Amino acid sequence: MTTMMSISDMYVRFETPFGLLEAVRGVNLEIPAGASVGIVGESGSGKTVMSRAAMGLLSGSNVRREGKVVFNGRELTAMSKEEVRNQFGTGMAMIFQDPMTALNPVRRVGTQISESLRVRLGMDKKQAMQRSAELLSLVRIPDPEAMLRKFPYQLSGGMRQRVMIAIAISCNPELLFADEPTTALDVTVQAQILQLLSDLRRDLKMSMVLVTHDLGVVANHTDFVAVMYAGEIVEQASTTELFANMKMPYTRALLESIPNIEMKSGARLKVIEGRLPNPVDRPKGCGFVTRCTYAQQKCHDEHPPLVDAGNGHLYRCWYPLGHTIARKQ
Predict the structure, then answer these.
(1) CB-based contacts of 81: which residues, under 8 Å, 6+ apart?
(2) From CA 162, how far away is CA 155, in angstroms rounded?
(3) What span, in angstroms and rounded, lies between the C-alpha atoms of 116 and 122?
(4) pLDDT, tens digit, 9 for 90 and up, residues 304-318
């Protein structure tokens, strides 16, 4: 299988008044051409920082990025900022978390969609507006010509997200990053947006990275899943293999925290007790040790490596699920 993007030994650190904050540490990930890869983890796990670092979107004098990113055979980390920027739109694109802040509130929808068409594809104003209407129709917005004349504040959250998707796919990118694309949307609209993204990926033959905190989201919309915790990948496998044979206690805890239709009314949701380790002062052992019901002394003392269980199933745990070890009471 051809690789669209390869991330090797990525570290992302931020200089802060409290010390060096390590947001991403030692991430290795391959995104196959034409596939959908889910990056899953709770808030603060490093998934968004990793995605933006891969695209070269992190900037600032306090940012320190290490590692190698190869996109379509070209090493992005060896390019200048201008060369990386030239990959945006036609090569890579991103759908950001909050469409209300990502869209310019004082510019009409048509102007915002057509901008990339004119800059990247060299279309004139008339051609760009015509194509913008076609894109709005492609993302299933009714009466696209009327939508072109509206401002973002006149749209619902779901419609704004569809506009963001139209902007992202306007120049036919080969790789699309979708960063929490269903945040703040109701359940029905979430399902519509996720299905839309899956359909567009298939029809436009794109690769896609779906960043989310919800394992339920990736179950039906990805081919591969990487679970992140405290800046590291702690489990990685094909989607089918991951759900059939989970190894990492954190992965199962994420799954169990999702509400399901079989729950009784008023039932308490399961939560993952505790919090992520301090990224400025990390423990020497497993980052999940203080929250794990299977933790032993070795978990406190030694940092677990990424182990290959076969079939490309990787996990980072001294005592994986199914291992004969007493559970904490």
Answers:
(1) 56
(2) 10
(3) 9
(4) 999 999 889 999 999
* Token reading at 267: 């039932």
Q: What is the largest CA-CA distance in the chain?
A: 68
Checking DSSP bridges between strand 207-212 and strand 36-40, what pairing results, if any? Answer: parallel
Indicate the DSSP class of residue 88: B
**Dihedral angle over CA of 134, 135, 141, 147, nearest 10:** -80
**Strand-pair partners of 228:** 233
Q: What are phi and psi of 96, to 5 degrees?
A: -85, 165
CB-CB contact of 318 with 302 (8 Å): yes
The CA distance from 165 to 187, in Å, is 18
pTM of the model: 0.92
Q: Convert the pLDDT of each residue in 232-262 to its tens digit.
A: 999 999 999 999 999 999 999 999 888 777 7
H or E element, residue 165: helix 157-169
Please name the residues in contact with 302: beta carbons below 8 A apart, sequence gap of 6 or more: 284, 285, 318
CA angle, 205 as apex, 204 and 208 as ends, to 5°? 100
Q: Which residues, in sequence order, are CB contacts of 251 under 8 Å at separation 6+?
A: 215, 227, 234, 235, 242
In one-letter notation, the amino acid at residue 22 is E
pLDDT > 90? residue 205:
yes
CB contact at 8 A, 274 and 229:
no
